[in-house]
Amino acid sequence: MSTRRLVTVVGATGAQGGAVVRSLLETNKYKIRALTRDVNSEKAQAIKRSSDDIEMVTCDISKYDDVKRAFQDSWAIYAVTDFWAQPDKPEVELQQGQLMADVAASLQIPYYIFSTLDDSNKISDGKLNIPYFVHKAQIRDYIEQKYPNLKAIFVELAYYMQNWIGYFKAQKSEDGTVIFALPVDQKTILPLADVDDTGPVIREILNNPDKFVHQNICICGEEIPFEDLAKVFTKVTGIPAISKTLTEEEFRSILSQKPKFIQDELLDMYKLLEEYSCYGKNKDWTTGKKLMHLNTFEQWLKKSGWKGE
């Protein structure tokens, strides 16, 4: 039996990284080096217990020596940056992304996959400066311009469907109606992604990685009008639901425990979705769907069994 190739996954306990780890394990083709800030965390230990093919490694992606040790001998790397780990220091994300690329290039890693976003400044003609969009785009530009010989592949995830469960939970009225509440117009077209689809997409890319070098693959299951979220939810679950457009004041009230700069950045993100889409007006968001099946919101609801709780 041939030696299994080593794939290193940054942020293995996160939503994207975890999906990649699970999907690659199903193939029985790879050894996985799963990177995390704390190998003793409950999530990290659960990943470690899931397979003998997983090596859990502590890695601070701000430290060159940590990253070099973690990336050593990898056949492929799935790299993500986490703006929300230090939102008051947005420059850290850019520094981490550039450092990881520097190390991957110096080690001559055969394939380097980076999770990016498009530059909100460019999409909006300078109106919306959203750090985690801008920096992820700048990291992609840095990789392409400084390391043209690095076999880099880029994926771009749309708005997570799972946000309704965690990051920006759906609300419930006293009569049990589920409320999808966002500061966007009812007609806003939302690009949605089941973050779990990240895993199968990366698995498919790694089956023939040379085909995708220097490409951008959008992971987006569908574009759906905001007003239709509630209709689809009720169709699947039988539970009454509405899509509610929040005023800026209502949105800030919900996020009153967050610093104002975070409120501002999130408002800008929703303005981006409302006016331009996270991919801009002209980008082909179906590149992932052309590669393989990606879940729609309806399919994700059926798969997850989520009923607004």
Descriptive notes:
- This protein has 309 residues and is an alpha/beta fold.
- It has a domain of 203 residues: 3-Layer(aba) Sandwich (Rossmann fold), CATH 3.40.50.720.
- It contains twelve helices and 13 strands.
- The strands form three sheets. A seven-stranded parallel sheet has the order 3-2-1-4-5-6-11, sandwiched between helices. Strands 7-10-12 form a three-stranded mixed sheet.
- It is globular, with a radius of gyration of 20 Å.
Q: Judging from the principal axes of the Cα atoms, what is the shape?
A: globular
Beta-strand fraction estimate: 15-25%
Mean pLDDT: 96
Distance between the termini: 47 Å
CATH architecture of the domain at 5-161 and 192-221 and 281-296: 3-Layer(aba) Sandwich
CATH homologous superfamily of the domain at 5-161 and 192-221 and 281-296 - what is it?
NAD(P)-binding Rossmann-like Domain
Residue runs with pLDDT of under 50 for 5 or more positions:
none
Strand order of the largest sheet: 3-2-1-4-5-6-11
SSE series: EHEHEHEHEHHEEEEEHEEHEHHHH
Q: Which CATH class of the domain at 5-161 and 192-221 and 281-296 is shown?
A: Alpha Beta
Strand tally: 13
Please bin the fraction of helical residues.
40-55%
